[in-house]
């Protein structure tokens, strides 16, 4: 299973982009799709796979938050 996470493009230099993901910045390969500063994107394994809408980004962030809460409250004894 592959999991991509959402981020926001903060800068673009050729085919490289700096993407902010939950307050952390990383370099990602942007050669697969056209991106610009401010775009919401899906990133997997250092590659930007897709540009998404702001509403899609918010929905995915809400799902990640819900998963984190479930994980924190998980008790394998029950």
Please write out the topology:
Layout: E1 5-13, E2 16-21, E3 24-29, E4 40-44, E5 47-52, H1 54-73
Antiparallel strand pairs: 1-2, 1-4, 2-3, 4-5
Please provide a brief summary of the model.
This protein is α+β, with helices and mostly antiparallel strands and 78 residues long. The chain has one helix at 54-73; strands at 5-13, 16-21, 24-29, 40-44, 47-52.
Written account of the structure:
The protein is α+β, with helices and mostly antiparallel strands and 78 residues long. The protein has a single domain, classed as SH3 type barrels, CATH 2.30.30. Helix content is 26%, strand content 41%. It contains 1 helix and 5 strands. A 5-stranded antiparallel sheet has the order 3-2-1-4-5. The longest helix has 20 residues. It is elongated. The model has no long low-confidence stretch (mean pLDDT 92).
């Amino acid at each position: 299973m592959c999991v991509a996470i959402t981020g926001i493009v903060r800068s673009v230099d050729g085919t490289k982009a700096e993407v902010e993901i939950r307050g952390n910045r990383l370099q990602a390969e942007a050669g697969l799709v056209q991106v610009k500063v401010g775009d919401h994107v899906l990133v997997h394994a250092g590659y930007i796979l897709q540009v998404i809408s702001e509403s899609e980004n918010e929905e995915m962030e809400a799902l990640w938050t819900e998963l984190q809460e479930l994980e924190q409250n998980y008790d394998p004894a029950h």
